[in-house]
């Protein structure tokens, strides 16, 4: 039975019909009796006006109604506290801009989320208390961007300017569906993209998406296991109290523990299995303190390997310590990674009556891919540059970087094959043939200047001790400045980043080239004056950045990709097998830490442990180890590269990384 015609018309009636015009073209019956005879082309000019955007009827939202949503967004998600006057201001703003559907359509919550993000960006870590003063009013005024396009389009509020999304809250669609490319360019300038980020012809200025973050300027986030989220920690210091040392290991433990509990092996089943055959095996981690009185039973433990004062290997977690018996232990996978004091591991075995734990198998903590971490902590800005984690992760085929104008610019930049980054390792300026090798590399790169060239130290083969050597050290950089002056195309187009090593001042003055504490500060300015002047005399495109070791680089709008660092491990010099780099990569990424070893082997500044964390996993990681051959491999979606030593037997080697493919490639040339 067919439905009535009136119901069919009502079902297909547009939600916002166009207003009827006064000009109607004549019907076919006016000119001919044949209704199928084609009409002559109309002489009416095409209309250029668009359908007017429906106005939103403002509503008055009581504070008691908006308070639960504001509490969930500001307090639970962003760790902010709302005062009553700020809540009243938000009630008026949300009611005016979102209308009666502010809750059902989700536009009100998105609007509050963007206000909270902009507040944190403006006020920083000190702005925990949100009041209704001029600061909040300025954020609200900044959210109101005048609409582009034809008259009558109305004022559109761009919710998601930070994420690159422009929303028309009245209709819930992207502004790119309403406007053309000209209006999108206007929006890009309005949300802070600036001119030149994305032009009409498709060119992308990659330097606007490149930022080098020093380890000592990186914000410190501490994981709270009770709230199961990250919180802003106090500003670190070089001379912290003794409790900072225990905080270092406790934070590493809680981060790895919460990561393990989210893996499929440790998640409890959602539904009970009908039979034992269909039941999924669930593993459970047992605290060490719960082993008391349970001798002869098998357990799965998680903790850190350590050596007690008696020289016995033990396992430590937050509840206690137990002696390990590794006489029959087998690594899983065998020869797949390294285990040393300071590493966290999962051990499977039995608790004996002599209070020892007999280990059957031992393995690394299971890693977590970057996109999986973004689903949980995607709202956290780990670098403090306004780019959250979920902006830099590819969810499906849509690409990363968020939606809207800024996200499309990022994805277009990543798709350009010409965008590449170059890494040179162990650039010992006093070494034989190093300057000649650098000249050869620069000659090759000058044909197509890369986005960034990173030179990783040590910049001298001999540590600068207390007996002087500063004059000779400065001369090495003066020679480098003379070499760079011959390559104007590189100094005008590329960003040069200099990362110090173990032999560079001033840490080497006290360590003598041995393992100095990480992170390490940049090369002092007193040695780099001539190199800086070379770039000051060049055009505005190139620059020289002197940063710490390790450092972070945010490139092309993603969070923390690539993550560049240099890491010298003492025992790597005795590893000559071909699989050594595979074990190194798996150990570091599974541990989620750049130096997962005892502090006596590689000292770490207690209060700057956050600069060495690899959680979430970066898009790319550069480890400069001269004792190993150059390599580039991918593990759990993270591309790990080692440029090796720059010059070896009249051959120069380097790494080229292309964001379009997410892969690094070892390059080599003779000179």
Automatic annotation (TrEMBL):
Location of region: Disordered: 1-51
Comp. bias intervals (Low complexity): 25-36
GO CC term, one of those recorded: epsilon DNA polymerase complex
Keyword DNA-binding: yes
Alphabetical UniProt keywords: DNA replication, DNA-binding, Nucleus
Gene Ontology molecular function, alphabetical: DNA binding
Name of this protein: DNA polymerase epsilon subunit B
Organism for this UniProt entry: Morchella conica CCBAS932
């Amino acid at each position: 039975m067919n439905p009535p015609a009136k119901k069919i018309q009502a079902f297909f009636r547009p939600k916002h019909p166009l207003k009827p015009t006064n000009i109607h073209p004549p019907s076919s019956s006016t000119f001919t009796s044949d209704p199928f005879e084609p009409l002559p082309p109309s002489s009416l000019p095409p209309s250029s006006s668009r359908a007017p955007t429906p106005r939103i009827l403002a509503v008055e939202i009581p504070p008691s109604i908006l308070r639960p949503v504001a509490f969930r967004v500001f307090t639970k998600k962003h760790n902010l506290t709302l005062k009553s006057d700020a809540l009243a201001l938000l009630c008026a703003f949300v009611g005016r801009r979102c209308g009666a559907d502010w809750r059902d359509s989700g536009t009100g919550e998105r609007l509050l989320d963007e206000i909270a993000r902009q507040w944190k960006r403006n006020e920083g870590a000190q702005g925990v208390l949100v009041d209704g003063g001029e600061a909040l009013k300025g954020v609200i005024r900044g959210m109101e961007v005048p609409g582009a396009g034809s008259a009558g389009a109305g004022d559109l509020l761009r919710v998601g300017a930070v994420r690159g999304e422009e929303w028309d809250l009245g209709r819930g669609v992207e502004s790119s569906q309403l406007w053309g490319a000209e209006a999108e360019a206007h929006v890009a300038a309005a949300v802070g993209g600036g001119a030149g980020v994305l032009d009409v012809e498709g060119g992308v200025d990659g330097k606007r998406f490149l930022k080098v973050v020093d380890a000592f300027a990186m914000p410190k986030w501490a994981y709270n296991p009770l709230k199961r989220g990250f919180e802003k920690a106090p500003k670190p210091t070089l001379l912290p109290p003794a409790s900072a040392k225990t905080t270092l290991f406790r934070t590493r433990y809680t981060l790895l523990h919460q990561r393990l509990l989210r893996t499929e092996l440790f998640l409890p089943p959602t539904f009970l299995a009908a039979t034992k055959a269909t039941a999924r095996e669930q593993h459970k981690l047992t605290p060490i303190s719960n082993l008391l009185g349970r001798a002869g039973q098998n357990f799965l433990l998680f903790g850190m390997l350590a050596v007690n004062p008696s020289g016995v290997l033990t396992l430590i977690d937050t509840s206690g310590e137990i002696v390990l018996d590794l006489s029959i232990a087998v690594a899983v996978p065998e020869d797949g990674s390294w285990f040393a004091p300071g590493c966290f591991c999962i051990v499977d075995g039995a608790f004996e009556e002599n209070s020892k734990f007999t280990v059957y198998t031992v393995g690394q903590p299971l890693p977590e891919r970057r996109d999986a971490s973004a689903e949980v902590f995607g709202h956290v800005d780990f670098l403090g540059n306004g780019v959250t984690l979920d902006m830099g992760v590819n969810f499906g085929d849509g690409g990363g970087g968020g939606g809207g104008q800024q996200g499309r610019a990022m994805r277009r930049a990543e798709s350009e094959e010409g965008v590449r980054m170059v890494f040179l390792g162990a650039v010992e300026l006093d070494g034989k043939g190093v300057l000649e090798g650098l000249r050869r590399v620069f000659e090759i790169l000058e044909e197509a200047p890369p986005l960034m060239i990173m030179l990783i130290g040590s910049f001298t083969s001999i540590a600068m001790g207390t007996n002087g050597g500063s004059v000779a050290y400065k001369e090495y950089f003066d020679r480098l400045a003379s070499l760079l002056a011959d390559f104007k195309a590189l100094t005008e187009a590329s960003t040069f980043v200099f990362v110090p090593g173990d032999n560079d001042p001033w840490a080497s003055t006290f360590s003598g080239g041995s393992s100095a504490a990480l992170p390490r500060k940049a090369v002092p300015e007193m040695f780099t004056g001539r190199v800086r002047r070379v770039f000051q005399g060049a055009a505005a495109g190139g620059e020289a950045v002197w940063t710490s070791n390790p450092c972070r680089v945010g490139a092309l709008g993603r969070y923390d990709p690539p993550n560049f660092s240099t890491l010298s491990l003492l025992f790597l010099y005795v590893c000559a097998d071909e699989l050594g780099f595979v074990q190194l990569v798996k150990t570091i990424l599974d541990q989620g830490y750049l130096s997962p070893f005892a502090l006596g082997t590689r000292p770490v500044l207690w209060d700057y442990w956050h600069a060495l964390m690899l959680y979430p996993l970066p898009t790319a990681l550069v480890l400069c180890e001269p004792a190993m051959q150059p390599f580039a491999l991918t593990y759990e979606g993270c591309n790990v590269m080692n440029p090796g030593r720059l010059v070896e037997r009249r051959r120069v080697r380097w790494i080229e990384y292309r964001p379009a493919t997410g892969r690094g490639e070892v390059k080599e040339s003779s000179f």
